[in-house]
Amino acid sequence: MTLPGVILTGTACDAYLSPEAYVAAIVRFELALARAQASIGLIPSPAMRAIESAVADYRPDLESIVAGGHRAGTPVVEILDQLRSCVEYRTAGAGQYVHIGATSQDALDTATALCLQPCVKLARSALERARTAAFGLAQTHAEAPVLARTLLQAAGITTFGFKSAQWGVSLRGCESRLTAAAGSGLSLQLAGAIGTGLGLGDQWSEIQTLVAGELGLSAARWQVPRDATSNLLVQLALTTGVAVKIAGDLALMNQTEVAEIDEPSAAGGLSSAMPHKRNPVMCMRIRGCGHVVQGLSAAVLGTMDSEHERGLGSWQAELAIAPSLVSYAVGAIDTLADLLEGVTFNAGRASRNIEQAAASVAESGQPSPLTFDRQAAVSAAARATMNILSEEGTFR
């Protein structure tokens, strides 16, 4: 990733999505497959010991893997060549037991799931933090009046608590959808050359269950359909979109002439040319990540035209897109959690903005709408906030 990209995302996912991590995940798959097959008598004990020893000592030649991958269209061929050489060095003839019944797609799809799994866990943890913080703001500021703005114009009075509660509702929905998508989208791929299990024999299901159990993935037969993977990536994009909306609201409330909120002081935001400014850099990072994710999510949908039993270019593009999309999504969601946990609401400035807007309505000669009846508006917003919190069940 480029330096500007890292500034937006942070480095939380780097260790899981590096080329080295992908190679290690492919090797994990191959080891788990061999162990499963050995456990049901398909691989002799001496060969299995050689495989485990080779995997333990394997040091991948990444340059050769990349070069070989360019030629073959997949890194798996070169990785297997290197791994089998290590196995053969220990026990002659044992290399033939590596990758039995599997194909490169099995190794790559499973490796992708293994690499994305901890990143999705980070996203879900940050999402829970953000949702908890949003509902916490809702409880704290349930009766704190602030301007409601429709089409970016002052429309009446709501409360900062009600705005926050609505953010929490969106984040809660994202949590449930992402949890479901992760359950089906992070799956073992083990279907063989054309997806029928040919080469794995009558014990395909047993082998699949054993491999999935060792790797901590769900077991599903899905070589051809890509919708579960696409759905996981799209749900991450949707969650990022919710983060962008919240960051947009807060950025507008942070404008100098509005000044209704402040980002956490630890966020920084210094300007190289204008030292009087304190830029909303957390909102900037979230929105920047969102712009990238928006384009990548469209690209994900474009890869769903995978031809026949294995796509030509589309499947490979999906594998290339996924790590970047996930990195930017995690960056946005994690920053949102930090932002909501540390944001400060400026009640005095919010009240002055209401007074100025109400005076503008009076000067217009139009009758003051009910939305500017402070007591009624705050009461309605506070009541709506508490209804949401009651439905959430966390706050009483």
Kindly summarize this structure in a few lines.
The chain is mainly alpha-helical. It contains 14 helices and six strands.
SSE topology sketch:
Elements: H1 3-9, H2 14-17, H3 19-39, H4 45-57, H5 62-72, H6 76-90, H7 104-140, E1 145-150, E2 153-159, H8 160-185, E3 187-188, H9 204-215, E4 218-219, H10 227-253, E5 261-262, H11 281-302, H12 314-342, E6 344-345, H13 347-363, H14 374-392
Parallel strand pairs: 3-4
Antiparallel strand pairs: 1-2, 5-6
Q: Round the mean pLDDT to the nearest integer and report it.
A: 93
- How many helical stretches? 14
Uncertain spans, ≥5 residues at pLDDT below 50? none
Could you estimate the helical fraction of the residues in percent? 55-70%
The helix/strand series, from N terminus to C terminus, equals HHHHHHHEEHEHEHEHHEHH
Determine Rg (CA atoms, Å).
27 Å
| Class by SSE composition | mainly alpha
Most strands sheet: 2 strands, antiparallel
DSSP strand count: 6
Strand content: 5-15%
| Distance between the amino and carboxyl termini | 45 Å
Strand order of the largest sheet: 1-2
Oligomer: single chain
Shape: elongated
